[in-house]
Amino acid sequence: MSYNSFGHLFRVMTWGESHGPALGCVIDGCPPGIEFTIAEIQAYLDKRKPGQSKFTTQRREPDAVEILSGVLASENSADVLVSTGTPISMMIRNTDQRSKDYGDIKDRYRPGHADYTYDLKYGIRDYRGGGRSSARETAARVAAGGLARKIMPDVVVRAAMVQMGEKTVNRDNWDWDQVDQNPFFCPDASVIDEWADYLDGIRKDGSSVGAVIEVVAENVPAGLGAPIYAKLDQEISSYLMSINAVKGVEIGNGFDAARITGVENADEMRIGADGNVEFLSNQAGGILGGISTGQDIVARFAVKPTSSMLTPRKGVTAKGEEVDVVTKGRHDPCVGIRAVPIGEAMVACAIADHYLMHRGQTGKV
Predict the structure, then answer these.
(1) Is residue 221 within 8 Å of 253, Cβ to Cβ?
(2) Are 50 and 341 within 8 A, CB to CB?
(3) How far is CA 162 from CA 13, 166, 278, 332, in A?
(4) Which of 9-23, 96-110, 248-262 has the highest mean pLDDT?
(5) In angstroms, rounded to a whole number, what is the distance separating the alpha carbons of residues 245 and 242?
(6) What is the largest CA-CA distance in the chain?
(7) Helix (H, G, I), strand (E, B) or coil at 292
(8) Is the dihedral of CA 176, 181, 185, 186 positive or negative?
């Protein structure tokens, strides 16, 4: 299976399976002299790791990251690592696999999963939690995203869940400080209890529900991207679509742009007191013609409901038998919850990659 990497200059290859001994990533192209600590990378992994509430899978993994190559200890602090410019390898060991939970579906194709297409393409599939197709692979991406942020110290990338099923946030109540204070990474404190009751009912019914995540990148310099085949919004969209269970991506006002007039959609401009251009709105989500404007970059992605459920669904076997499929094990009733730090990481990686390309093309940062 090829295509296990992404990026141009900041290139990330992930490796490992959900139920193997470990998984991780190799980052090729990180500039030398980037300082970071393991604790900084670990903080992002801690946001993604399972088992933190009843609303996520109860698989218990510490997701402790190990740095295997590409760094030296700082002369000023034993805790600080400094990139050498060579490939940086990170590893996360799996400690709580329960492969026996998947024995009953070894030869069964779960509806909504990639079981059928993987078997059709490769003639073999890892039924133990999905192998490479498992969302567990995204832990390595989150680690890479932590390092990507260190390349652009002024850029702030953060995300929040703005919709769960039919439940949406009130944007008038948006508070970034609330995001890390509830199990849903939700910016609106007024809906937390309602969302908890809603998801608890879905969980108890043996079903699942989808979600929409919004990612915002602040302090992104103008000029990142390209007008044709390396558009910044194109690559952010590609990175986000690569996340498990994502079925749609939009930049700025996205599909809403099709419902309004050009007068409403145009981001008008004026010259500010400092002599620089100021935009009066941000319908474009911080990107015009594939190139960043200097405004906040805003992207949203839709995550489908988790396909692994206790409710029987009609499926077939590899031998062509018709069966009802029940997926045992530990699963997220709303996989979109843990997609929040993953979305942050992928946007951070995309921007870091273009940041380095921009520097290489223009000499400017």
Answers:
(1) no
(2) no
(3) 30, 11, 27, 18
(4) 248-262
(5) 9
(6) 71
(7) strand
(8) negative
Model confidence pLDDT, tens digit, residues 83-114: 999 999 999 998 866 555 566 777 888 888 88
Q: What are the beta bridge partners of residue 288?
A: 291
Angle between helix 138-151 and 339-362 (nearest 10): 40
| 239 Rama sector, left if φ>0, alpha if ψ -120 to 50, beta otherwise | alpha
Enumerate residues 6+ apart whose C-beta is below 8 A from 22. Answer: 16, 91, 92, 93, 94
Residue 274 CA to residue 329 CA, distance in Å, equals: 58
The pTM is what?
0.93
**Tokens coding 173:** 């109540």
Taking a C-beta distance cutoff of 8 angstroms, is the pair 335, 343 a contact? no
Cβ atoms within 10 Å of 269's Cβ, excluding its own = 12
Amino acid present at 134: S
What is the distance between the alpha carbons of residues 242 and 234, in angstroms, rounded to a whole number?
Answer: 12
Give the tens place of pLDDT for each residue, 297-326: 999 999 999 887 777 889 888 888 998 887
Q: Between helices 38-48 and 138-151, what is the axis angle to 10°?
A: 140
Could you tell me which residues come within 8 angstroms of residue 275 by beta carbon, excluding any fewer than 6 positions away? none
> Is residue 88 within a helix (H) or strand (E), and if so which, with residue range?
strand 88-93
